[in-house]
């Protein structure tokens, strides 16, 4: 159950925070009021998306590291973590530009 944070003045919009879910799953979102329960339609499907990478710019660099790069894809969030194999990039060196792009600002291996 998600807590309703706000309802607009006309009763046509709700603000809620989605609860944690399982990556790659789709769930039905329902609204229940004194007047009943919303019907299950395709419009109420919410996907817990996994991030997908579509490009690395540049896609190669010097073995000493320290290369600034742009990672492009989908499903990125502000708390995204970046790894090169098992080596974590410090969170202060990652800037999320939006759900489709973030960049490594100054990391070296």
Any chance you could write out the topology, listing elements then pairs?
Layout: E1 4-7, E2 14-16, E3 26-28, E4 32-33, E5 36-37, E6 45-47, E7 52-57, E8 69-74, E9 83-84, E10 87-88, E11 94-98, E12 101-104
Antiparallel strand pairs: 1-2, 3-6, 4-5, 7-8, 8-12, 9-10, 11-12
Helix/strand order: EEEEEEEEEEEE
Q: Order of strands in the sheet with the most strands?
A: 7-8-12-11
Question: How many strands, what sense, and barrel or not for the largest sheet?
Answer: 4 strands, antiparallel
Q: How many strands in all?
A: 12
- Please report the distance between the alpha carbons of the first and last residues: 43 Å
Mean pLDDT: 83
Residues in helices, as a percent range: under 10%
Weakly predicted, low-confidence segments: none
How many alpha or pi helices? 0
* Amount of beta strand: 35-45%
Mass-distribution shape? elongated
Structural class: mainly beta
Oligomer classification: single chain
Radius of gyration from CA coordinates: 19 Å
What is this entry, summarized?
The protein has 109 residues and is mainly β. The protein has strands at residues 4-7, 14-16, 26-28, 32-33, 36-37, 45-47, 52-57, 69-74, 83-84, 87-88, 94-98, 101-104. The protein has no helices and twelve strands.
């Amino acid at each position: 159950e998600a807590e309703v944070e706000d309802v607009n003045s006309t009763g046509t919009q709700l603000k809620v925070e989605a609860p944690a879910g399982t990556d790659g799953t789709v769930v039905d979102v329902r609204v229940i009021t004194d007047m009943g329960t919303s019907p299950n339609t395709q419009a109420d499907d919410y996907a817990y998306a996994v991030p997908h990478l579509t490009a690395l710019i540049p896609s190669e660099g010097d073995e000493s590291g320290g290369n600034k790069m742009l990672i492009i894809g989908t499903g990125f969030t502000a708390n995204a973590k970046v790894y090169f194999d098992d080596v974590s990039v410090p969170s202060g060196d990652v800037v999320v530009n939006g759900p489709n792009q973030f960049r490594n600002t100054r990391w070296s291996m």
